[in-house]
Specification:
Helices cover about 40% and strands about 10% of the residues. With about 80 residues, it is an alpha+beta fold. It has a two-stranded antiparallel ribbon with strand order 1-2.
Length: about 80
Amino acid sequence: MNDFPKFFGKVPVGAKGQIVIPAEVRKEMGIKPGDKVIIISGPPHHKRTFSIFPEDEFNKFLKFFDHMSTLKDEFIKQNKK
């Protein structure tokens, strides 16, 4: 994606609460039928906001923060000396 963030349009919420991810989004983000997506609310000051992540990208995100937590622990340990 060259332009970030990118506006992809708007979609209706159906009677069952379902939304359709537009074809352009699915193509650009590599989302295929059967893939799972993660939905996260927030941030706290935007109570009606949510983000959708392809599951594999969300897992990369979690691994990154796990690594950062390890670095934080090492930093704290070294600075206690």
